[in-house]
Amino acid sequence: MAVQTRNLFVTSVNADHREGICEKCKIPLVKEFYMDGKRKRVRMVCPECGGLGRLISRSVSIQPPSPPQCVKFSCLFKFTLDTLFCALLSSYHSRRVSYAEKNRHKEILERYRTGNPSPTSIIEAIHANIKLSCPVCRKYNVNLFLNGGN
Amino acid sequence: MAQSQTVTDTGIAELILLWREELATGMESIVCLDMATPCTAAVGSTFADPADTAIHHTDSGLLLAAIDTVGGDTTNTAGDTITFDHVFTATATKNVAGIHVCNNDDDVAFIECCFNAVIPVENTDTITIDGQSTIDQAA
After folding, report:
1. Among A15, A64, A120, B61, which residue's beta carbon has the most beta carbons within 10 A?
2. Chain B contact set for A66 (CB, 8 A)
3. What is the ipTM metric for this complex?
């Protein structure tokens, strides 16, 4: 059985969905090229105040876990945990973006628009998913159990 | 459904043609994918036949356009990464499920990306794409 992977190419794409009218000045944003270190970047800014427009949602890349490098139980177990975490994290970000888009004109927690902070462990990812699916819990920026605050 | 992104088979074939100095062109264009539900990026997708039932947007500011910036960067070894940034400005209410990053001839999709969820854009909304692809010797 051949395992097909495409590790040689690692691709990531992030997408910011923003309003094109400055929230403060109420004028259309204009395209601006700028340097980020050595990298030439592009963004939409307000010509008056330099604002970036209200963020509606940010889609983020999630890289799948690396394949196991050995057949020891520890390697396979780690791969299983990494895969589970990847699945939970993917689920969280998919639901987060859907939630942010459906509530684009409402006040929601900024973390659901930006994706930050993002869960960093399986426990946090499970907690974040449960919290996001609870209409009451997701309104409050409080976390009694986890440092990640999801 | 997770966001998925991949270099397509046709994209790799175009890259090999470039290495062989045969008839091929580099990364130049970008277009939004139109689909009402989230798509899943696939290596077998092509410029003419994107993932699932997605099609290319052909109007409303989401159509095929020259990428705003394409540059080089370093992830593991010097110059192993290509970066691309682009801003789409919608002129109508549409669904955006993902993007295709294409060659200069607009006949090959190098990279296909399907977003975390469908992004419903309204008139004047912007989508800022921040992408990169690394040929990773360490992988």
Report:
1. A15
2. 139
3. 0.90
Cα A89 to Cα B92: distance, rounded to the nearest angstrom: 32
- Is the torsion defined by CA of B56, B59, B61, B66 positive or negative? positive
Q: What is the 3-state secondary structure (H, E, C) of chain B?
A: CCCEEEECHHHHHHHHHHHCCCCCCCEEEEEEEECCCCCCCCCCCCCCCCCCCCEECCCCCCCCEECCEEEEECCCCCCCEEEEEEEEECCCCEEEEEEEEEECCCCCEEEEEEEEEEEEECCCCEEEEEEEEEECCCC
Cross-strand partners of B109? B102
Distance CA A100, CA B9 (A): 33
Q: Which of A39, A43, A53 sits opposite B71 (nearest CB)?
A: A39
- Cβ contacts of A97 on chain B, cutoff 8 Å: 115-117, 119
**How far is A73 from chain B, CA to nearest CA, in Å?**
22
Give the range among A62-71, A117-126, B35-44, B110-119 with minimum mean pLDDT. Answer: A62-71
Q: CA nearest B119 in A: which residue? A: A101
Question: pTM of the entire structure?
Answer: 0.87
- Reply yes or no: is the peptide bond before residue A117 cis, omega within 30 of 0: yes
The yes-or-no verdict on residue A146 having pLDDT over 70 is no
Q: What pLDDT, in 10s, does the model give residues B82-128? A: 999 999 999 999 999 999 999 999 999 999 999 988 999 999 999 99
CA distance A73 to A69: 11
Residue A145 is predicted with a pLDDT of 52
